[in-house]
Design brief:
Layout: E1 2-7, E2 14-19, H1 25-32, H2 34-58, H3 63-71, H4 85-95, H5 98-112
Antiparallel strand pairs: 1-2
Helix pairs in contact: 1-2
Amino acid sequence: MIEVKATKQNTDREVQALIDLGENCQDAITKFGEEVVYTNFVSQAKIRAQAIMRDMLTEGKTDEEIAEFMSNWKPGTTRERNVDPMASLMSKFGTMSPEDQEAYIEKLMNKAKGITPATEG
């Protein structure tokens, strides 16, 4: 048995239920059938693979680097994340409003000049 919780957005409502998914893979196959277990496994593996690929895009990896990594990826394994700080900065910058972008550029220019917030003014 596992406990599953769900909330409804924009409300304080939460519901929980106990669901018997089996004790192991073979038990799940006995309860639900091989096709159900396999299709659920594939669905979840696909979602995880997409998340990894999105992370790699954010890190600035090329299509070829992502394809190479994914060709050897195995569900259930973790990967070492090598975040490119500049790629992360540019990704974040792209989501900012023009006003926030301008303020951030000013902050960077001040930093380059050796001006810190404590000494500005």
